[in-house]
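Hi team,

As requested, here is the filled-out complex form for the S-adenosyl-L-homocysteine run. I kept the field names the same as last time so the parser does not choke. Let me know if anything looks off before we queue the next batch.

— J.
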Amino acid sequence: MPDPLQDGLLGLDYQELSSIAQKFGQPEFRARQLFDALYPQRLPALDSVSTLPKPFRAALQQEGLDIKHPRVEKSFQSTDGTIRYLISMADAETVETVWMPEGDDGETGDGTEAGDSEWHRATICVSSQVGCAVNCQFCLTALLGVKRNLSAGEIVGQVIAVLNDRQVDMERQRVNIVFMGMGEPFLNYPNFIKAVRLLVEGVGFPESRMTVSTSGILPRIHDFGAEPVRPKLAISLNASNDQVRGSIMPINKKWNLEMLMQAARDFPLRNRERITFEYVLLAGVNDSPAHAREVIELLRGIRCKVNLIALNPGPGIQFGTPAEQSVQIFKDLLVKAGIPAFVRRPRGRDIYAACGQLKRTVA
Ligand code: SAH
Ligand code: SF4
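And here is what came back:
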């Protein structure tokens, strides 16, 4: 059981709420009422849960078991409608969560952008850790190191804080989740998986509207394939051979490309599902036609698509953004070889909200 003083009720599943109801001498249906208040209704505090008797609410509050949503400290709005939220947890650690109206998951993309008054669908990019330990050389989050894992409640709490801020109606509006914010979700696996279950069973996200990205934590890719409820899988490939990958992603020294590709080939895909490979293009490092041809060889026989991301620059990052033309040539080579490939539009670069730019910047 998580530390209730830190987490309150958010993050508890039905089973855990049920044992709390029992402990407080309440009938079983109180657990359902609590669950409904926490997740589908997204209520911010026990005081607003009018279905529960006041003495029970007071007893819970006395034990530190209130509903505590992570707090939006600041938000920054981009000219393209993207909003970057700086969100603080009970211990004052902060993470970033990003709202992208119209989505940017590589599959939508009619190229239009919607301001927040008229979005048709949106994507929330969620953090899984405070910082990250994987230390990819092109990523600003890496510069923080890892402070700690987020609890399941803190992961779900980011989503709820953003849904409430945007006043989203889950019955009528279409929202996707990508676990592509700060941190490596597969290095916080149990909390990540628990959050997924609460988002599916509680908040109302179909698993098909969620994608998790990993830098390639091999044992967890295997575990993930065996989960009964799971988001789609994205793998940060980012290079076409071990020499380059090892030089920009230290994790490649532990699990090299041959092992990673074998795990991808073995991954139990569902009907019509594909693995997404993300590939950050770094000028002069991994963006030549020869690299594209190596990628094509690597991906042979894997049901997949590729999302190409031109490097989003940042202070302390030693790489350059490739010219648009070389991005296009790279993409065309993949497409000609029969691999669906998309160039991801950078979202919210002006407010440091784009891929790899999350660093808890407060301005
Ligand atoms: N830690 C996980 C989840 C974060 S996803 C992972 O790395 O997969 C973040 C995505 O943004 C990854 O695909 C990563 O390769 C990419 N990325 C990191 N830094 C970037 C940058 N500076 N510009 C563009 N993409 C970047
Ligand atoms: Fe961590 Fe992902 Fe950034 Fe690599 S790209 S440092 S795994 S957040």
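Two things worth flagging: The pocket of iron/sulfur cluster (ligand 2) is lined by residues 132, 134-136, 139, 141-142, 183-184, 215, 236, 356 (CB under 6 Å). Residues 61 and 315 are 44 Å apart (CA to CA).

Thanks,
J.
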